[in-house]
Specification:
D-Amino Acid Oxidase, Chain A, domain 2; eight-stranded mixed sheet; seven-stranded mixed sheet
Length: 500
């Protein structure tokens, strides 16, 4: 028999073997599509992250078969979360229990987790090639050529479709869009591991303080007396935040009484590592002819909490489902890939618009007293209103969309709590004398003075901030005007796609 060679190395080449790329490879291989999964690193490899895998992400890992891999069931389970402000606990609650979803998360170091997802892709039939970095690509009528570099030299692969999942500094995204993403879409984080921590292993601790706002720091136990301790913050703030995050994290560990209590006898293992993250921007394209972006490369990171794993796994599956249909229909145009971009918009754009607006507002550090007081109000309401707490906890755990914060229950409860708190404060102030009366006016005047001072001393930065707030407010208004009905983040399980 004469066999005619196929001039494609694979139907699909995936650049980047993180959760999005490995999930897409696993699903595509199961659909019968030939896949090559590439990464510059050899696995297992580390990735700077908080390591929390929420209930939605756990469900996606279940669909990939990751729970069947040895060691998975021994990973640390997180059942509750606690919020602290300036060393004082505001609230501690168990995760909501929603039908069909785990009522817990897991804390799994990315050194372990990412390797397991790659293994799931390999078991499904994907070819995994490590030690090769994607340097660029070019699209032709009959395929896409992907350039690679490795210690042994350069080479090129041909495929029908290229999926870019190569992280926040994505080469595929830069080439496809022709530019780097805007600087104001960036958040930064640092993370370290500590041994011999104190306190419960099933509790995630989130810490807030004016010194680290707009941002938060965390302690997430990974089991065995160890924990992931880190700090995340918006990169662009008004005024600029000059202190290095690694130094700030160390200072917070020394000064925050709640965090210090858990790390009193702990030891730092390794070193503090940092990484920038690009957040979602609806103005940036996710698809082009024969090219599609998913995960961090698509900016699918919630700017409000830095969550990216669940969006990586979801978008990897969505990309695989769309590409599988393209292979079936022999159509790899941008129009054929557009259902993926439409799905991202349908499921995530409203929530990301709300998150972006909130982040832009809190990026002005002159308003810190307002937002920290709002945090006190929300947690005070959650302590006494179970339904309110379920919604707030669902947003925190990634079980409920962020738009739930705009529900009647949340808005009404927050206003009610604010009114009650102000009434109580007014009564206490009245009986405290003239000195306390003047303090109310001084607090408000201080915020106003800070805003005016920032506007005068740095008018360009202040003006840019104001324009971003207006732009994001308009985007949220557009999304709200569409009458989008709140939908669960957990989409239907992968459908069978026959490839012929």
């Amino acid at each position: 028999m004469i066999r005619i060679a196929n001039d494609y190395d694979a139907d699909v080449v995936i650049a980047g073997a993180g959760p999005a790329g490995a999930a897409a490879a696993c699903h595509l291989a199961r659909y019968g599509v030939s896949v090559m999964l590439l990464d510059r690193s050899s696995f297992p490899r580390d990735k700077v992250c908080g390591d929390f895998v929420g209930p939605v992400a756990l469900a996606e890992l279940g669909a990939l078969g990751v729970p069947d891999i040895d060691g998975y069931l021994a990973t640390n389970i997180a059942r509750r979360a606690a919020l602290y402000l300036d060393g004082h606990e505001l609230i501690s609650r168990f995760f909501p229990n929603l039908e069909g979803m785990p009522s817990y998360g897991r804390v799994v170091p990315r050194y372990v987790l990412d390797n397991w997802i790659v293994e799931a892709a390999r078991r499904a039939g994907a070819r995994v090639i490590t030690g090769h970095a994607v340097t660029g690509f070019s699209v032709a009528d009959d395929g896409v050529a992907v350039g690679l570099a490795s210690p042994s030299g350069t080479l090129a692969l041909r495929a029908r479709v290229l999926i870019g999942t190569d992280g926040s500094s994505s080469t595929v995204a830069r080439v496809m869009r022709g530019a780097l993403p805007p600087r104001d879409d960036r958040i930064v984080a640092v993370r370290a591991y500590y041994e011999n921590i104190a306190g419960p292993n099933d509790q995630l601790d989130l810490y807030f303080t004016r010194r680290a706002f707009p941002g938060y720091y965390w302690l997430f136990p990974t089991g065995g007396g160890e924990a992931n301790v880190g700090l995340g913050m918006v990169l662009e703030t008004i005024p600029a935040h000059a202190e290095a995050l690694a130094a700030l994290l160390k200072r917070l560990i020394d000064s925050d009484s709640a965090l210090a209590a858990r790390l009193n006898t702990a030891r730092l293992r390794g070193k503090v590592a940092g990484w920038p993250l690009m957040t979602y921007d609806h103005r940036l394209a996710l698809v082009d002819d024969r090219v599609i972006l998913a995960g961090d490369a698509a900016g699918l990171i919630n700017p409000l909490n830095g969550e990216g794993i669940q969006y990586a796994l979801l978008s990897g599956r969505w990309a695989a489902e769309t590409v599988a249909q393209c292979v079936r229909n022999h159509d790899y145009s941008a129009a054929a890939l557009m259902p993926y971009a439409s799905r991202v918009e349908r499921e995530l754009r409203y929530d990301m618009a709300l998150a972006r607006l909130i982040v832009q507002l809190i990026a002005n550090r002159g308003l810190n007293p307002v937002w920290l007081e709002a945090l006190r109000l929300i947690t005070a309401r959650a302590r006494k209103d179970a339904a309110y707490a379920e919604i707030a906890g669902g947003i925190l755990a990634g079980l409920a969309p962020a738009r739930s914060a705009l529900s009647v229950r949340m808005i009404g409860g927050t206003i009610d709590q604010a009114a009650m708190s102000l009434a109580i404060k007014a009564v206490l102030t009245t009986f405290s004398g003239p000195a306390a009366w003047s303090s109310l006016g001084l607090d408000a005047a201080q915020v106003g003075f800070q805003l005016a001072y920032d506007a005068m001393t740095n008018p360009l930065s202040f003006g840019d901030w104001l324009m971003r707030v207006v732009s994001d407010a308009l985007e949220l208004g557009v999304q709200a005007s569409k009458g989008v009905v709140a939908a669960p983040l957990v989409s239907a399980r992968p459908a069978a796609v026959a490839i012929r």
